[in-house]
Amino acid sequence: MARGNDERRFDTPKGSRRAPFRSGGDSDRFGRFTELVARGMGTPWFLLGLTLFCVLWLAWNTLMPEDLRFDSAANGFTALTLVLSLQASYAAPLILLAQNRQDDRDRVQIEQDRQRAERNLADTEYLAREVVALRLAVKDLASKDFIRSELRAVLEELDRAQADRAGDEDSANAAPRG
């Protein structure tokens, strides 16, 4: 399937064009770059490096001879202010892009968790129904006491029948033969 053929893609409305940073591998590469930058700016090393940069800039432009200075303290270090403003103006959107990617990942994870919870609930309900069915089936089964009483009754019947047979034989043997 060709990337440029939007008519064959199901995730793009017909006739629309994809945004330049939303298609294919370039978006992923750029997204990983933004996350790397955002992750780097959130470290103590970045703050230490930025502080060191500013200290060196201020020291150079304050302590060096006039002809070697490139930013004037008289003008309030305008170039340093511009450099820091430029850095901040790029940092904010990069951090927001990285945050949007994280939100997308979180949204996918939440959806997967929801589906997993639904499956777990369905499995739990099924198991609960099975346990109830087993309880009902066990309730209908004969208990040990019932089986013992029935066996005792059968044994008593057999004993009576045997005693009756033995009594019939004794009376037949005791009767005169003629």
Automatic annotation (TrEMBL):
Q: Which domain of life is it from?
A: Bacteria
Membrane-traversing stretches: 36-60, 72-97
Instruction: Reply yes or no: does the keyword Coiled coil apply.
Output: yes
Where does the record place the region Disordered? 1-24
The biased composition feature labelled Basic and acidic residues covers 1-14
Quick check: keyword Membrane in the entry? yes
**UniProt name for this protein:** Membrane protein
What is the organism of origin for this protein? Agromyces terreus
The opening ranks of the lineage are: Bacteria, Bacillati, Actinomycetota, Actinomycetes, Micrococcales
